[in-house]
Design goal:
By secondary structure, the protein is α+β, with helices and mostly antiparallel strands. It contains three helices and seven strands.
Length: 172
């Protein structure tokens, strides 16, 4: 069984699923609110870097500056390929990185349960939304802890910045 990470982020009351989807389906926005991404480029459909990705799926080459040691004591650059699959309820990404690291990441907007919304007022289904994120990681056992830790940190920051983007666009 592959290693995985899972998180649930309660969205602010009144957040519309369509507002969150607008961000998740805007790949440029997804990349720019990721702390590690420095550059991204949409690959040409004929690029051999696309691998076996279907021709209608956007594939990007990403360059990230990632910490190799805590507190930014040693940073490094990594270049990888990511497929971006828009879903009706979220986003699915497939990452192929150096050293045999591969991840399948899914963000889905789901209805939250009552425990996650203590103090929330009654309202529409959109008042009780949660962004669920799951990543399945395949890599050498030596890299597992580092990859998991980096993904978790990156996704926590991404979730905070997604909320900030919702507020800035006044579309919660």
């Amino acid at each position: 069984m592959p290693n995985q990470t899972h998180s649930r982020m309660v969205l602010p009351p009144g957040t519309k699923a369509s507002s969150v989807l607008a961000i998740l389906h805007n790949h440029g926005k997804v990349f720019t609110i990721n702390d590690y991404v420095k550059t991204y480029q949409l690959l040409d459909p004929s690029s051999p870097l696309r691998g076996n990705a279907p021709s209608d799926v956007p594939v990007y080459e990403i360059v990230e500056d990632i910490p190799y040691l805590p507190y930014g004591l040693w940073m490094g650059t990594v270049r990888y390929i990511v497929q971006m699959h828009n879903l009706p309820d979220g986003l699915h990404t497939i990452v192929r990185a150096p050293a045999g690291v591969a991840t399948n990441n899914t963000w889905k907007i789901v209805a939250g349960d009552e425990n996650e919304h203590a103090g929330a007022t009654e309202g529409s289904k959109d008042d009780k939304l949660v962004l669920e994120q799951t990543s399945k990681i395949e890599c050498n056992r030596l890299y597992t802890l580092y990859v998991k830790s980096t993904l978790t940190t990156s996704h926590e920051s991404f979730h905070r910045k997604l909320i900030q983007s919702l507020y800035e666009s006044h579309e919660t």
